[in-house]
Design a protein that fits this description.
single chain; 241 residues; alpha+beta; 60s Ribosomal Protein L30, Chain: A; CofE-like fold; five-stranded mixed beta sheet; three-stranded antiparallel beta sheet; 6 helices; 13 strands; 28% helix
C-alpha cells in the first residue's frame, strides 16, 4: 500500500517548441530542460499530452484519403462531424454510443480505453491525429531516455483529453504510463479501495496543461508518493486487446 501524499508541486516545461512529425520527443524535452536550467529529481512524474506523442510518432491521417461507409455517413449527419473523421473514430473503435442524440461519440478504443471520439483529435479541416499505437510503450521509451539523460528515477504518464457521457466539458485521463503503478490501494477503517491512480495524477497535470492554446505539452509533478512499476495503464483496463 502506498503512503499518502500530503502535498506536491507542479510546473510546466516552457517555453516548449512546436513538436513536429518525426521529432524525437525525449530530445525535445531534454532541450527544454537544458535551456530552462530545470533539473529533474528522483520521483518526479512527467505528465505528457498524447497529441505531442502522436505528432512525434507521425500518427496524422488526411481526411481526404478516408473512405466513409454508410454508418459513418449516418453518424456524421447526427453529430455534425465530417464523415471522414467519424469513419476514423469507427475504425479505431470496437463499440460506441452517443452521450446525447447529437453526440459526443463515446467509443471503446481497440486498445481497451473508453474515450470521447476514440481519442481521434481533429487537425483543422484537412486531417486528424490518432492515438499512439502503444501508449504504454511510448511512456516507457520517454522514461528510459529521460532517465538515461538525467540520472533521476522518473515516471511518465501519457494523457489524453476526455469527456464524460453524463456532463459537459473535458478532463484529462491516463492512456499510458511507465515507472508508476496505475492502481493505488487505500485502506481505512477496515475498508479497502483500488484507485485509478494514474488518472488522478493525469487530472492534476491537466490543471497545468490546460486544453487549448497553452503550448506546454509537458508538466512535472514533484512530491507525489507512488509505487514504481511498469505494468502500464493497460493493466487496469477491463477490456484489454
Amino acid at each position: 500500500m502506498t503512503a499518502p501524499t500530503s502535498s506536491f508541486s507542479g510546473f510546466a516545461l516552457e517555453p516548449f517548441p512546436e513538436v513536429r512529425p518525426g521529432d524525437n520527443l525525449a530530445d525535445v524535452i531534454i532541450g527544454v530542460l537544458d535551456r530552462s536550467e530545470v533539473e529533474l529529481e528522483d520521483g518526479d512524474v512527467l505528465v505528457v499530452a498524447s497529441k505531442a506523442v502522436s505528432i512525434a510518432e507521425m500518427r496524422y491521417v488526411e481526411l481526404a484519403g478516408v473512405s466513409s461507409g454508410p454508418e459513418a455517413m449516418e453518424l456524421a449527419a447526427r453529430t455534425g462531424k465530417p464523415a471522414g473523421l467519424v469513419q476514423l473514430i469507427l475504425d479505431a473503435s470496437s463499440g460506441y454510443f452517443l452521450a446525447t442524440p447529437t453526440g459526443p461519440i463515446i467509443a471503446r478504443h481497440t486498445l481497451g480505453l473508453q474515450l470521447t471520439s476514440a481519442g481521434v483529435d481533429r487537425a483543422g479541416s484537412a486531417g486528424a491525429w490518432l492515438l499512439p499505437v502503444d501508449p504504454d510503450a511510448s511512456a516507457r521509451a520517454l522514461r528510459d531516455a529521460l532517465t538515461a539523460h538525467t540520472g533521476a528515477g522518473l515516471a511518465v504518464i501519457v494523457v489524453d483529453s476526455d469527456g464524460r457521457a453524463d456532463r459537459r466539458g473535458a478532463t484529462v485521463v491516463s492512456i499510458g504510463a511507465a515507472g508508476i503503478r496505475p492502481l493505488r490501494v487505500t485502506e481505512y477503517d477496515g475498508k479497502r479501495q483500488e484507485e485509478t491512480f494514474t488518472d488522478l495524477v493525469a487530472a492534476a497535470g491537466g490543471i497545468i496543461l490546460g486544453q487549448r492554446g497553452r503550448g506546454a505539452p509537458v508538466a512535472v509533478l514533484r512530491g507525489l508518493s507512488y509505487e514504481a512499476g511498469d505494468e502500464g495503464v493497460a493493466a487496469m483496463l477491463h477490456n484489454r486487446p
